[in-house]
Recover the amino acids of this structure.
């Protein structure tokens, strides 16, 4: 007696699904990272040894006598109306400008720095908004004085002409190019001296310069002026003393030297 075993053949749909699953498993197996240890690839050495350096700083300062002064002054008027405040301020400033120009100060050295008109208020009545009682007109100029021996006269004559405010005097050097070059050279000399000392103590030598960085210190201009403590009627009698003092031009360098 014979026994027959019949195995049903999968249909077309079943065969396609099986094939797709097989391909997915194959791709996953081949793309997944291997679990076996791998050696780490080292970055190839360039063969260049790191540079050895000394970092130092140097400062150079040149002291100068100022040769230019900038004077700020103006006039402030308070009147009941805008027209009156403007007119009085205009008259006063015209006189001030005439007094400055009479000293030989050029038009290009006189520049209007501020013109403003503001109302004045009465807050005592408790009214909101407060009541306007008048107007203040302000007109200010900045004057460049290139002959310092005329600075005192410029102040006195302006006050006598009607200036009501003197906001400051600053002194400066008109051309600092040469002084900056001297300060820069002194700064580099100081930096090299420091590096040479360090190298000598360490038993090494300077081989060159890797980098240089420069900074300039803000120049502090002196403000040396006084009105002599005189009241308004005495201004014409007592001359304003002026002392320009000195000013410094400072350069600082940071230098990195190569050593060997």
């Amino acid at each position: 007696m014979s026994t027959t075993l019949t195995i049903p053949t999968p249909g077309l749909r079943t065969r396609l699904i099986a094939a797709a699953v097989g391909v997915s498993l194959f791709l996953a197996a081949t793309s997944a990272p291997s679990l076996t240890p791998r050696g780490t690839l080292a970055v190839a050495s360039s063969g260049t040894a790191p540079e050895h350096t000394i970092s130092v700083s140097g400062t150079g300062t040149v002291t100068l006598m100022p040769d230019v002064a900038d004077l700020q002054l103006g006039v402030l008027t308070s009147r009941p109306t805008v027209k009156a405040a403007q007119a009085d301020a205009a008259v006063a400033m015209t006189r001030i400008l005439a007094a400055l120009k009479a000293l030989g100060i050029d038009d290009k050295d006189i520049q209007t720095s501020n013109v403003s008109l503001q109302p004045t208020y009465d807050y005592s009545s408790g009214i909101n908004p407060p009541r306007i009682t008048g107007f203040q007109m302000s007109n200010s100029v900045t004057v460049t004085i290139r002959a310092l021996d005329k600075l005192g006269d410029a102040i006195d004559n302006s006050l006598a002409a009607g200036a009501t405010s003197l906001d400051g005097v600053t002194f400066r050097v008109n051309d600092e190019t040469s002084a900056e070059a001297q300060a820069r050279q002194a700064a580099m000399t100081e930096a090299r001296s420091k590096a040479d000392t360090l190298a000598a103590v360490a038993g090494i030598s300077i081989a060159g310069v890797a980098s240089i960085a420069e900074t300039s210190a803000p120049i502090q201009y002196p403000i040396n002026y006084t009105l002599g403590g005189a009241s308004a009627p005495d201004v014409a009698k007592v001359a304003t003393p002026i002392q320009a003092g000195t000013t410094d031009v400072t350069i600082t360098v940071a230098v990195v030297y190569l050593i060997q």
In short: The chain has four helices and seven strands. The chain has two domains: 51-66+174-260, 68-172.
